[in-house]
Amino acid sequence: MMLRRTASVLGLSNRGCCRLLHSTSSLLHRGPLEQKLKDGPSLQDFISGTARNKSTDLKHEDNESVVSVPRAPSTGSSYFVETYGCQMNISDTEIVSSIMQGAGYQPAQTAEEAKVVFLNTCAIRDNAEQKVWHRLYEIKHTNKKLPAQDRRVVGVLGCMAERLKDKLLESEQLVQLVAGPDAYRDLPTLLHAVQGGEQAINVQLSVDETYADVAPVRPSANSISAFVSIMRGCNNMCSYCIVPFTRGRERSRPAKSIVDEIKVLRDQGFKEVMLLGQNVNSYHDGTDEGTSSYQLAKGFRDMYKLRSGGGVRFADLLDRVADVDPEMRVRFISPHPKDFTDDVLHVIKERPNICNSLHIPAQSGSTTVLERMRRGYTREAYLELIDRIRNLLPGAGLSTDFISGFCGETEEEHQDTISLMNQVIYDQAFMFAYSLREKTHAHRTMTDDVLPEVKSRRLQEVMSTFHSNLASKLAGDVGQLHLVLVDKISRKSADELSGRSDTNRKCVFANVPVRNGLGLDGETVQMKPGDYVLVRVDSIASQTYRCTPVARTTIQEWSSASIQDRRARVGSEIESILGSVASPISHSFRASNAS
Question: What residues does 499 pair with on adjacent strands?
Fold first, then answer.
């Protein structure tokens, strides 16, 4: 602890401080090594920047040199990562794979085949943590049955690692390694310490780590869609949320590194990118020459005041990313309503390849609950934002989050949430009962006083309201046209393909030859993953569109035609294929094309 404080005072970076800790203090075994450290680096060496050179000269008793990034051992150097939680954790697993493979470790197909097993964890709700605890006990039980030399090294990564580091390493003794989300570069070093018989931990949060220079290792099975992390951390400090304490403060990748990564993905044949961040639309690259200043959506306020300055903001980045390839779809998650400024909405409207699928997390429909949650907006401001989105992007698919039973929630406040849901009519919702998280503002200042049975009942009412509204909405979608990106052969039948619409609705349709293009004289082609296909919705099955494919087309071909032109160009084709007059064009198509 003293070494970490000293490094902080001296201005060393978090990353440098952590590596320093692992190359020196983590080697403080009891015995002769303590004497040898007298010849090692001093405080003056740290100040002068010569500490690393001296530390690499330190020797264990077996004369093995201590190096900053050890390579994998020659045998048994396989790893496996089990990922829990959000898209950001999936992206982080790709970062971990890159770092591990760069250090000489090879990926295993299963946890049972691996020598090192990582659990990349989520701490946002108690249920997520319980899944990890269950899995850790399962691995411990299996490990006990193996000979000592064959037992797996177990490590916990991510949000749960930071929150429960002491319990994981000491009380339960379930793992040998704990690494927070900003410590993945140090995994080879931590494993080196474990191989020497030590427990290893690094949960130091960083003010600058974005892994911008680490090329993710993505699964080879899916070359259609890719996650691209653009920022990390969160400054919002909502009273119920643990993320600022497990992920740290906001910091954004340089815009150029993001655009360059997406160009590589384009060249590799990817057709869709999902931009990721804990507060993705508060993105700000202050190192770029952009001139945008910080803005809030109308009617919203911000607890965190240090967001000023020029540079590249989210609207600028969206525009640059969309410009990489007009035939590559762009999505983003997870945003905050306060950062849905008009310039962001206008970029989405103007760029046909930015999907009309927006996540607008409400959390509650009650202004008083929102105030206790420290969300920075009222019910009225939220509904005004929804109105602006509906006006600019008619037919956009809207998703949201709701928490039932937050501290002090009354029945009247709960009914405010129900009425908000009835007013907005969401396409997708993530609904949970409130789960108290340690360290949060709510944990320190409020009482989790809503009874579990009341939380459960209110959650069921929220879920019932959502599903009832969605069923009515989807019934009205029958007969509409959607542009779908084919992503795979259907799991249920090799004779069917599946993909997602611009509004993020899953679509399933027959794998049959279709006309190539919207013209009436095009040849027929066989569809395949990565194609854009125009489909008509025939029916709804469990929130999935069952469709008939009409034609293979492109984003640009479809978006370049006006609504009237689309009717004229595809009407007779649909009539001949489907045996009916063209149905109303899906309201997912942009108003700019309707004029």
Answer: 486, 507
Task: List, as one string, the DSSP characters of 167-186.
Answer: IIIIIS---SEEE-TT-GGG
- Measure the CA–CA gap between 454 and 225, rounded to whole angstroms: 40
Sheet with 329-333, edge to edge strand ranges: 225-229, 272-276, 329-333
Look up residue 185 and give its two tokens.
């570069």
Distance from chain centroid for Cα 468: 28
List of the chain residues with pLDDT < 50: 1-68, 74, 564, 572, 575-595
In this structure, are residues 395 and 593 in contact, taking their beta carbons and an 8 Å threshold? no
Q: What is the DSSP letter of 585?
A: B
d(CA 370, CA 363): 8
With contact defined as beta carbons under 8 Å apart, do 119 and 156 qualify? yes
* All residues at 6 or more sequence positions from 193 whose CB lies less than 8 Å from its CB, including other chains: 22, 26, 27, 199, 200
Residue 278: HSE in the Cβ half-sphere, 13 Å Cα cutoff: 27
Which of 31, 20, 74 is CA-nearest to residue 197? 31
Q: For residue 103, give Cα distances in angstroms to 47, 74, 299, 456, 506.
A: 29, 11, 50, 47, 39
pLDDT tens digit sequence for 120-159: 998 887 888 899 999 999 999 999 999 988 899 999 999 8
Integer Cα distance of 509 and 488 in angstroms: 11
Nearest-5° Cα angle at 558, 555 to 562: 135
Say whether 445 sits in a helix, a strand or coil: helix
Q: Map 107-134 to HEC letters.
A: ECCCHHHCCEEEEEECCCCHHHHHHHHH
Unique residue bearing structure tokens 């340089």: 254
Structural tokens at position 382: 């939220």
Angle at 104 between CA 193 and CA 62, to 5 degrees: 40
Helix (H, G, I), strand (E, B), or coil: what is residue 484? strand
Nearest-angstrom CA–CA distance, 253 and 209: 9
Among the listed residues 191, 301, 324, 155, the one whose alpha carbon sits nearest the alpha carbon of residue 237: 301
pLDDT tens digits along 272-314: 999 999 999 999 998 876 656 667 877 888 776 555 677 899 9
Q: Report how far residue 99's alpha carbon sits from residue 81's, in angstroms, rounded to the nearest whole number.
A: 12
Alpha carbon of 557 to those of 262, 263, 519, 534: distances in Å? 22, 22, 10, 11
- Look up the pTM and report it: 0.82
Distance CA 101, CA 401 (A): 36
List all residues 6 or more positions away from 556 whose beta carbon is below 8 Å from its beta carbon: 326, 327, 352
Residue 305's pLDDT is 57
Are the C-beta atoms of 326 and 353 separated by less than 8 Å? yes
Q: Are 99 and 184 in contact (CB under 8 A)?
A: yes
Task: Please give the Cα distance from 484 to 508 (Å, whole number).
Answer: 10
Dihedral of CA 221/272/494/539: which sign? positive
Phi-psi region of 158 (alpha: psi -120 to 50; beta: other; left: phi over 0): left
Token reading at 63: 């004369």
- Quickly list DSSP for 41-86: --HHHHHHT-HHHHHTT-B-TT-PBP-SSPPPPSSS-EEEEEE-SS
Q: How many Å is the maximal CA-CA distance in the chain?
A: 88
- What is the residue type of 94? E
